[in-house]
Design goal:
Layout: H1 18-29, E1 36-42, E2 53-54, H2 58-66, H3 72-79, H4 92-100, E3 106-110, E4 115-116, E5 123-128, H5 129-134, H6 136-160, E6 165-167, H7 175-188, E7 193-194, H8 197-203, H9 213-217, H10 222-232, E8 238-240, H11 246-262, E9 269-272, H12 277-290, E10 297-300, H13 306-314, E11 321-324, H14 326-329, E12 340-347, E13 353-355, E14 372-379, E15 382-390, E16 400-403, E17 411-414, E18 420-423, E19 425-430, E20 433-434, H15 441-454, E21 470-473, H16 474-496
Parallel strand pairs: 6-7, 6-11, 8-9, 9-10, 10-11, 15-21
Antiparallel strand pairs: 1-5, 1-12, 2-4, 3-5, 3-19, 12-13, 14-15, 14-18, 16-17, 16-21, 19-20
Enzyme class: ligase
Family: Belongs to the NAPRTase family.
Domain Nicotinate/nicotinamide phosphoribosyltransferase: 167-347
């Protein structure tokens, strides 16, 4: 198949797991397709053993939902599917239903660039059961990856302590779509530019890059290569100095830098891509300073991540700019966020929502029931706790208790009267109509930076971060506990039979 702009052939409705289609069919057969339900998307543990996670991907979700529709090509594909007995897999009337179905859900979500924590809803979907179910896989696909990469980028930028981080992982990224999404999420997480030119075009991200070792090797000498590059780009020369001998490469860069200066131009800096980065950067810094280039930047690359950058900082390496590729765009050492999408309520015959619980032997895997939301409390601009609560539940302004959903002993008393609060789930769609105006990428990136500033530095430690308080409001905790006990009693009664 040719990789072209028409690869996906328009609709992305079939970008889902097959069991979503089979469940959709079973809902339809059971006359449950239009029964209203509520699903919540959340994650259970921070990635990278960190203390925070940075939400990203909402703009992709909005775009997906706006165009959510089964087109004729999708229906034709499903129509040809056969069961094991050779019969058609799906009733033609069901396929007609899918063809006519229009997206009509309510979606509330946490804005991109928001710091988020385990078990709190990132997206809440309310609507016909069949539509909610069909949205599970694409929503998880989008949020899992982009949130993971944005978080990795934020950690790397925290390690760099304000110095520019360039993302250049395109060649190592997980395919074309993964590369574009990673570049976008990396920019949200704080990277200053990308090497991905298409990402620059599509998202307005600044692009950066100079030359590779192949440029140097294509000339008889390194000096000739530098001179030729300076001739082509006199105003943006950063020379890659480690093709042959790093320190000799610095000497050649200085020679060309002097030639540029004689023409009224200034060398921007050098890049080191191999070897002992601490040693060579310090040697290069001394050589550049002594030659009269104190403002020349030293860019470092070579499989960097937040831990290596922290180590180089500790060694007082003379590095001003950090180029990070593979370990950023592949979220190295944690391949997936692990967010899940669970049914939390379904409308009963009386028109009210009935909370639903999934019971597990692992407390970590017991979901939060009901139509719930999350509030963040601030004191003097710093985030102090997140409370997951039932919508419509009155919160005592003079005090309530939040209880960690995975550890009943971990509790915190909240006095809302003395805090500023923010409801984190924002209305995105109502009855399928878009109500949210997406901010531009620069605004999202600024929000991410501001959000990280609201966290105490102990929550942002790369190793053994302090635990940020997130808990169920006590009424929701009691509801969840009661539902678990009831489910266990039902299970025991079934065993006795």
């Amino acid at each position: 198949m040719k990789i072209t702009k028409d690869l996906y052939q328009g609709s992305l409705a079939l970008l889902t797991d097959f069991y979503q289609i089979t469940m959709a069919y079973a809902y339809w057969k059971s006359n449950k397709a239009e029964q209203e339900a509520v699903f919540s998307l959340f994650f259970r543990k921070h990635p990278f053993q960190g203390g925070f996670t940075l939400a990203a991907g909402l703009d992709y979700v909005i775009d997906y939902c706006k165009s959510f529709k089964f087109e004729e090509k999708d229906i034709s594909y499903l129509r040809e599917m056969k069961a094991k007995d050779g019969a058609k897999m799906f009733d033609p009337k069901f396929l007609d239903y899918l063809a006519k179905m229009k997206f009509s859900c309510d979606i509330d979500a946490i804005e991109e660039g928001t710091v988020v924590f385990p078990n709190a809803p990132m997206i809440r979907v309310k609507g016909p059961l069949i539509q909610c179910q069909l949205l599970e896989t694409p929503l998880l696909n989008i949020f899992n990856f982009q949130t993971l990469i944005a978080t990795k980028a934020a950690r790397i930028n925290l390690a760099a302590k304000g110095e520019p981080v360039l993302e250049f992982g395109l060649r190592r990224a997980q395919g074309i779509d993964g590369a574009l999404a990673a570049s976008r999420a990396s920019y949200i997480g704080g990277c200053s530019s990308t090497s991905n030119v298409m990402a620059g075009k599509l998202f307005g991200i600044p692009v950066s890059g100079t030359h590779a070792h192949s440029w140097i090797m294509s000339f008889e000498t390194e000096l000739e290569a530098f001179e030729a590059y300076a001739e082509a780009f006199p105003d943006q020369c950063i020379f890659l100095v480690d093709t042959y001998d790093t320190l000799n490469g610095v000497k050649n860069a200085i020679k060309v830098g002097n030639a540029l200066r004689s023409k009224g131009k200034e060398m921007m800096g050098i890049r080191i891509d191999s070897g002992d980065l601490a040693y060579y950067s310090n040697q290069a810094r001394q050589m550049l300073d002594e030659a009269g280039f104190p403002d020349a930047k030293i860019v470092a690359s070579n499989d960097l991540d937040e831990h290596i950058i922290t180590s180089l900082k500790g060694q007082e390496a003379s590095i001003n700019v950090w180029g990070v590729g593979t370990k950023l765009v592949t979220a190295f050492d944690q391949p997936a966020l692990g967010a899940v999408y669970k049914l939390s309520a379904i409308k009963g015959e009386d028109g009210s929502f009935v909370p639903k619980i999934k019971v597990s032997q692992q407390s970590l895997k017991i979901n939060v029931p009901g139509l719930h939301n999350v509030k963040r409390y601030y004191s003097k601009g710093k985030a102090v706790a997140d409370m997951i609560y039932l919508e419509g539940q009155e919160i005592n302004p003079k005090g309530t208790v939040i209880i960690d959903p995975t550890d009943n002993a971990r509790r915190k008393r909240i006095m809302p009267l003395f805090y500023q609060e923010e409801e984190l789930l924002k209305p995105i769609f109502r009855n399928g109509k878009l109500k949210y105006k997406s901010p531009n990428l620069e605004t999202i990136r600024k929000r991410a930076s501001d959000q990280l500033d609201t966290l105490d530095k102990t929550h942002k430690r790369l190793v053994n971060p302090h635990l940020y308080p997130v808990g169920l409001e006590e009424n929701l905790h009691h509801l969840r506990t009661d539902l678990v006990l009831k489910a266990q009693q039902m299970d025991q009664a079934s065993d006795e039979k």
